[in-house]
Amino acid sequence: QQQVKQSPQSLIVQKGGISIINCAYENTAFDYFPWYQQFPGKGPALLIAIRPDVSEKKEGRFTISFNKSAKQFSLHIMDSQPGDSATYFCAAKRTQKLVFGQGTRLTINP
Amino acid sequence: DTEVTQTPKHLVMGMTNKKSLKCEQHMGHRAMYWYKQKAKKPPELMFVYSYEKLSINESVPSRFSPECPNSSLLNLHLHALQPEDSALYLCASSQVAGFTDTQYFGPGTRLTVL
Description:
The complex is a heterodimer of chains A (110) and B (114). Chain A is an all-beta fold. In chain A, 0% of the residues lie in helices and 57% in strands. Chain A is globular and about 40 Å long. Chain B has strands spanning 4-7, 10-13, 18-25, 31-37, 44-50, 53-57, 64-70, 73-79, 87-94, 104-105, 109-113. The chains are: A mainly beta (110), B mainly beta (114). The A-B interface holds A 31-32, 34, 36, 41-46, 49, 51, 89, 93, 95-98, 100-103, 105 and B 4, 6, 31, 40-43, 45, 48, 50, 55-56, 90, 92, 97-108, 110.
């Protein structure tokens, strides 16, 4: 119930393409869904986040799509760039706890 | 400014040593967190402090001892660690530990236990 399932584990996209990472959860008590980007040797950095009463949120090239009935949410990176190559974690929050997905290693080929 | 700082960046210690990790934030946040991250895995929550009081301990072994001296500082005292404790230790902070509180992470301390 506390799990967040993330897919795919790894993803290779050509420069300029769209990167899509998916997450699913079971616990309907989760009330906040952030995405973090992590480069090797660095801490996770907040990328974008959404509340469950919103179906889509866009910030620049990054968009979260949220499907409350299906308990799924996804990150879309438009016009993917080599600098976007990193590990991406979805997460779900309930009270003080943040539950992370297993991560997706994204590689953007030039 | 959304900066959380952590010192040291790297730490190598023997199993009989005592060492401490330090975390600092000046964003006025009243919730602070310790996470442990193994290679190619997501961060795992260890402790949560809310208004300088320990509110969550995720069944962490007693060889890890957190301390929150004030609202800006968070320490993690280490004693008699095992090699399997080698990991990236991340500190995070948020305004309060509640609804839609974004957690901001520091760069981490890379700990190696010999």
